[in-house]
Amino acid sequence: MKKQNTRTITLIIITLTYLLIGAAVFDFLESQTEKQRKEALDAVEKMVIRKYNISEDDFKIMETVVLKTEPHKAGKQWKFAGAFYYATTVLTTIGYGHSTPNTVRGKLFTMFYAIIGIPLGLVMFQSIGERLNKFSSVVIQNVKKLLNCKDVQASEMNLICVVTTLSCLTIAGGAAAFSRYEGWSYFDSIYYCFITLTTIGFGDMVALQKDNALDNKPEYVMFALIFILFGLAIVAASLNLLVLRFVTMNTEDERRDEAEALQAAQGAVRLEGDVITANGSILAGQVGNHGDTISLDDETSVCSCRCSGFQKKRRRPRFTVRRSPGKISHLLPMQQLPTLNMRSEQRSPPLTPLLQRSALHQQRGIPLPQQQLPRRESV
Fold it and tell me: How far is 193 from 174, CA to CA, in rounded Å?
């Protein structure tokens, strides 16, 4: 449990540190450009107002019209093709934001649709990724057999290399197609493919939003949807190998701790009273209900009677004996101690408690304590 807590705290600290570093880098890279673009747009706005002699309120109205008209340039967003594209972005959690529902019913259905669709999509992509990894392992084994390799098993590193290669090829091929159809630069197309397949979905660059592509280019619409679904399956395969391994580390540690606790519980021995070992020595002690140790004191009496008051106790370190179930089979069974046989109460008076303890010591072969015993008077 301590190991999991330490790992969790470490991950939190590392993540927060990573966020701070990212914020500092993005601030350095983008803040100056943002300031320059804002100043340029303000200058253009003032020039347009001054040139056409319109008020600022009228300019705001024109600006709103331009922004609201932008999504409609791609065609009808809520016909079947556009609706299917929107449903895909919801189920895959990409969420471009290029089209959003405007009615209350549409927003309500989007929430219920996402509650069921997102887990379904995650399970589907996860399953496809697992099958893809299985197929990759079979291919790797066959290739190793053809190359006469000693170890023909597909290692985790081999699968990572194969899936990473497939991911790179998918992004490169998709970028080439989007660069041609959308008129983007190749670097911007790679950026779009990466943002899409990682489900970040900023929405600053969205395919199928020019020249009524949703209505006039059905083959391009089909290609974009297949690219998204197939690419997400490749990414899911990568997650199975890279991310899930680290996610399951806490679970593995918890199982290991449970196994160790179970093994310790099985190896615990609870004994009460005296134990006679194979060498004839007697371990006297008492173990609590929840303990698994036998505590001994060198100077305490080893018999079951309460004669410790006749010995001078010395403070010595206590010893702890731990035994597992497999190591106590040599212990001798407990034998009932013989009792003194009094033949005639008339011939011999009852023994005093001290003489009884002395007799028990002699029968067990234990030396008498260093204390003078009272003489027994003859009758």
Answer: 7
